[in-house]
Structure formats: structure tokens, C-alpha cells
């Protein structure tokens, strides 16, 4: 199984790339974490948010692996503890398909795309910068894996 992080945004600062890669490299090959960056839609003076979300959703859909289990990162989604994430990770492994974690752009994820996702996950009520979300996701996925494998990284 591969876990695809499909995220709107390119040209991240070095600290984001380094932080993400630190944890992505630690994932075992059977749970490889792969990043697919989506070019954001340019903001123009007369472009409305829903139009931007719709265009970015088209780009996201084009990047999603065939047959993947879609999980949207959404502030209105379910909040999972790290232990709950490890349970979700274990359940995803039994699906027999890849998992695509979808991070929208600055204006969020189009409602139609959200409605087509199997799950919605919220990292909490805080508004996090999207570059930081990549690092947090990679670290939490690695932490969830260590819980499942009995590794001492997670000390709750």
C-alpha cells in the first residue's frame, strides 16, 4: 500500500521539504509515503473562491491514483488521536488499495470533491499553514506506524 499526500502548493521552503522527507523516509516500504504536489490556481482580482476550489479539485482528481481510498483533510472532519490514527492506518492496510490524503489550497476543498471522499479528517480546530500540514501529516503517520510496530518512538 502507498499513502499519497496530494497537496495543493509548490515550491515549499527548505524546512518544509526537509521536515516532510525526514518522516517520509522513515516509513517502511509497505507503507510508502509519496507526495504529489498540485499547482495552485493563480489568484486574480475577479476570480471567486468557489471557482478556484473547483479548478483545484480538477487538478487534484487528475493526480489521484486509480482506485485509491480518498481521505480529505477538512476542518469539519473527524478529529483523531494518534492512537485512533494508528487504528485507521491498520484498517487502510486491509482495504487492498492505496490511500490518498487530500490537502486543498488556501480556499479549501471543493464541496463536490469533499462529498466523494470516503473519510474526512481534521487535524483540529487550529488553522495551520498548509506547508506545516505536510510535516505534521508525515510525522503523525510515522508515529502511527511505530505504534502498530511496537517501536518506542511513541511514548503516550
Detailed description of the structure:
- Helices cover 40% and strands 22% of the residues.
- The chain is an alpha/beta fold.
- A five-stranded parallel β-sheet has the order 2-1-4-3-5.
- The longest helix has 20 residues, at 130-149.
- It is globular.
- It starts with a strand and ends in a 7-residue tail after the last helix.
- The model has no long low-confidence stretch (mean pLDDT 94).
What characteristics describe this protein?
156 residues, alpha/beta, Alpha/beta knot, 5 helices, 40% helix
Estimate percent helicity.
Answer: 40-55%
Q: What is the count of helical runs? A: 5
User: In one word, what is the shape?
Assistant: globular
CATH homologous superfamily classification? SPOUT methyltransferase, trefoil knot domain
Question: Which percent band covers the strand fraction?
Answer: 15-25%
Structural class: alpha/beta
Task: Give the tally of β-strands.
Answer: 5
- Unreliable segments of 5+ consecutive residues: none
User: How many structurally independent domains?
Assistant: 1
CATH topology: Alpha/beta knot
Terminal CA distance reads: 27 Å
Mean pLDDT: 94
Oligomer: single chain
In CATH terms, what is the architecture? 3-Layer(aba) Sandwich
Strand ordering within the main sheet? 2-1-4-3-5
SSE order, one letter for each helix or strand = EHEHEHEHEH
Amino acid at each position: 500500500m502507498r499513502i499519497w499526500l496530494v497537496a495543493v502548493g509548490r515550491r515549499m521552503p527548505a524546512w518544509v521539504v526537509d521536515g516532510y522527507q525526514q518522516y517520509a523516509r522513515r516509513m517502511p516500504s509497505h507503507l510508502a509515503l509519496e507526495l504529489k504536489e498540485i499547482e495552485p490556481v493563480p489568484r486574480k482580482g475577479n476570480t471567486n473562491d468557489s471557482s478556484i476550489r473547483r479548478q483545484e479539485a480538477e487538478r487534484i482528481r487528475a493526480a489521484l491514483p486509480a482506485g485509491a481510498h480518498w481521505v480529505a483533510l477538512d476542518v469539519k472532519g473527524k478529529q483523531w488521536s494518534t492512537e485512533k490514527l494508528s487504528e485507521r492506518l491498520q484498517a487502510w492496510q486491509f482495504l487492498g488499495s492505496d490511500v490518498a490524503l487530500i490537502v486543498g489550497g488556501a480556499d479549501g476543498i471543493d464541496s463536490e470533491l469533499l462529498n466523494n471522499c470516503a473519510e474526512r479528517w481534521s487535524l483540529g480546530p487550529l488553522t495551520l499553514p498548509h506547508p506545516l500540514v505536510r510535516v505534521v501529516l508525515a510525522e503523525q503517520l510515522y508515529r502511527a506506524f511505530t505504534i502498530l510496530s511496537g517501536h518506542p518512538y511513541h511514548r503516550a
